[in-house]
Design goal:
This protein has about 525 residues and is mainly beta. It is about 5% helix and about 50% strand. The strands form 9 sheets. The chain has a 5-stranded mixed beta sheet, with no helix packed on it. A 5-stranded mixed beta sheet has the order 11-18-16-13-14, with no helix packed on it.
Length: about 525
Amino acid sequence: MDEEQRFFIAPVAAVRAEGDAFDVTDFTFSVTRSGDTSGFATVDFEAGGTGASAADEEDFFGAVAGTLFFTAGETASTLTIRVRGDDAPEADETFAVTLSDPSDNGVIAAGTAEGAILDDDGGVPAATQFLAILPADAVKAEGDDFEITEFTFTVTRSGDTADEATVDYALAPAGPAPAGEDDFRGFETGTVRFGPGETVEDITIRVDGDGTPEPDESFAVMLANPSAGAAITGETATGLILNDDAARALTIRPLDAVKPEGDEDAVTEFTFTVLRAGDVTGQTTVRFAAAGTSFDQASDRDFFGTPSGSVLIGTGETSATITIRIAGDDEAEANETFQVTLSDAGGDAVIAGATAEGIILDDDGGTPAPPTGAGTVDVFRFFNTQAGGHFFTADAAERDLVRATLPHFEDEGVAFAALPADSTAAGATDVFRFFNTQAGGHFFTTDPAERDRIVETLPQLTFEGVGFDAFDSPVADTVPVYRFFNTQAGGHFFTSDPAERDLVLDTLPQFNFEGIGFYAFPDAIG
């Protein structure tokens, strides 16, 4: 089979009362496949407890893991999880069924579905009202010394609101520049109380202003411990404290930093610029150091001289140049990367963009050729005009579905070209895709550790499996795909266009530059 198969799981009859002791209740899920379904296929499944009241092994009757088989032409199969009843009062319990290991060229498109085992013995009642937190007025300038600025969040209640309800809240650090305890005035924890019939209550967070230049800082307000009968459906909202103090903000950018290394005994200069914004009176100094980064990283022998020092920006000047000298060689090798990092800014200067990357291009025949014969797939980009995030897909059918059904998604064309998922091309790596349900856009990573950390800690990011394949390090004809984090909206932005990258860096300070996410092709190849 040549065409990719995609597997989906969805609940059918998966929220049911457990039954009495010695009863067995069937919870059913539908597993479907699309694409080339002309051949035989298999996919594994496993059920396990999840959530605050997780089902355990004693709640299940028989096997909770196994393999589903699809015959030629078969597109759907019913998966049954058998639940053992009891007579013990208890909370409703939840479990998830997860798909894995599809056969042949299959991928998991929607890999998890949840079931809920409802107690029918007079235990903890099911939730009848639902609580969520949203930012109301939570992106504001901090104010001056001794000035208090109020940031407002709204907690909403839906469902049965006839009785009273309570939920606790607490502050938590968030984002690349998290606010600290000294940024707040007063209590960082508290309780929201709803009277009968009330559906909206506000939380006010008091921010302590200062006169210190610093980066914009973010924080989260998190809900916990709802009263009986209530459940939290929106746990976290983020606030952003905008710096309003004149500063000498320093940012490093590559200037001429993607170049061939040159021959043995040659020295090639890679240049970077340090930009200064804000107050440009007086002099500003900042230290820098270069070191190898990423998978094919430059080593000490790739640098000519000491790749560190300090740079001075003079009175009235807005920039200065850093030169990193690279020692050439005649050795066939992969392209190599390095990173220049700023530190120890003098005076009241603040480092707003600390790193920039250079790529030493091999010119001795060592860099792998592009994968011939494998072909590429276009990765399409949409802008969510309502939520502000970007949506990416390598699936033409998904692209067409978005065009037809989501008019608020603005079609921005092809962002770059990648390899099909599970490509066998040398050096190819899976690019994992998450959908940010809050920001309305996609997040990608090639790092399995980052993938697992997000799955464990960020429930608002829904794991969607492998979106496509790319490269962790450059091969011939590839370009970097740059990654940004939007500190206001909480989503990620990706671009392979250096001009667009620089435009974002110059005009959108809320976008935190996170470097190179992976390498892809600017255009499709055969």
